[in-house]
Structures are given as C-alpha cells and as structure tokens.
Design goal:
- This protein has 151 residues and is of the alpha+beta class.
- It contains eight helices and four strands, in the order βααβααβααβαα.
- It has a four-stranded antiparallel beta sheet.
- The longest helix is centred in the N-terminal third of the chain and has 11 residues.
- The protein binds 2'-deoxyadenosine-5'-diphosphate and magnesium ion.
- 2'-deoxyadenosine-5'-diphosphate (DAT) binds next to loops.
Length: 151
C-alpha cells in the first residue's frame, strides 16, 4: 500500500474542475485518506517546490501555486504514486495522453491543473508538509476487496 500527495492547483479551483479531478482518482479505485482546502503561502510553496529553486520557471511557479486556493489530497492504493502520475499525464499538457487530466483540460505547462508526488521519498516529504498524521484517516472501504487484490 502506497500513499501520494495530490493537489488540485489554483487553475483547477478557478475553472471549476476540482470535482472532475477528484472523480478521476476516485473512479480509478484509489482510496481517499485526507483532503483539505487552503491557499498555499509563499513559505509553504518554497518548501514544496524547493527542488525547483534556481530554475527559470521557479518565480512563476511560486506565483501560480499561491495565487488562489487549492485542494490538497492524500490518496492510497497499491502503486498509488505511479497510478496517480498516469492519471495526471505528462508535465506538459501537449505531451500528456489525451485522456489524462492534463491532456484533457490543459494546454500550458505553467497551468497544468494538478500536482502529484513523483516517488516514495517525495510522497512522504510532501504528505508531511501538508498533513498532520491525525488528518490522514485509516479506514476500510466497502469496495476494497473489489479494487485491491491484497487488502
Ligand atoms: P510535475 O508537476 O509533473 O511533477 P515538475 O516537478 O518537473 O513536474 O515541475 C513542477 C511544476 O513546475 C510543473 O507541474 C510545471 C512547472 N514546470 C516544470 N517545468 C517547467 C518548464 N520548463 N517551464 C515552465 N514551468 C515548468
Ligand atoms: Mg514534480
């Protein structure tokens, strides 16, 4: 079982696509274990995107992610990180599979609607950044045996 941090970014909130984005992860079979609505502060954005500091797009990225509220989620399931990355599509919407969230709803790399952790270490770091341990809910879903092979 793996957990990943997903963010419906400011453009998703402003465009009314939050429900659609949640629905993609929900229908894929991932299990929701945490969710909150907040506006990311510049300090939190700097920690979340620390790996991108110094890159040409960094200032624009921080301005964008702090520009309006976001919906932050924790989803879990077997291989949840990769499953979520696949559902999101490639970073650049033009290169994202047409059925993916970014491929279907995006055109600009700097307005690509959704964030997802890119590996187990990143996921642990990012989940810790946005959630207190008690905010992540351990629960058994009625459909689990029909979605997870080994649950
Ligand atoms: P991802 O969000 O797919 O994990 P990333 O971690 O490489 O992609 O970059 C974080 C975000 O920064 C990405 O969602 C959009 C923005 N970004 C990345 N590369 C960019 C570029 N070359 N120009 C503009 N924005 C970029
Ligand atoms: Mg990334």
């Amino acid at each position: 079982m793996e957990r990943t941090l997903i963010i419906a970014k400011p453009d998703a909130v402003q465009r009314g696509l939050v429900g659609e984005i949640i629905s993609r992860f929900e229908r894929a079979g991932l299990r929701l274990v945490g969710m909150k609505f907040l506006q990311i502060t510049p300090a939190l954005a700097a920690r979340h995107y620390a790996v991108h500091q110094g890159k040409p797009f960094y200032a624009g990225l921080i301005a964008y992610i702090t520009s309006a509220p976001v919906v932050v989620m924790a989803w879990e399931g077997p291989g949840a990180i990769q499953v979520a990355r696949k559902l999101m599509g490639a970073t650049r919407p033009a290169e994202a599979d047409p059925g993916s969230i970014r491929g279907m709803y995006g055109v600009s790399v700097g307005r690509n609607l959704v964030h997802g952790s890119d590996g187990p270490e990143t996921a642990a770091f990012e989940l810790d950044l946005f959630f207190e341990p008690a905010e992540l809910v351990e629960w058994a879903r009625a459909a689990d045996p029909w979605v997870f092979e080994d649950n």
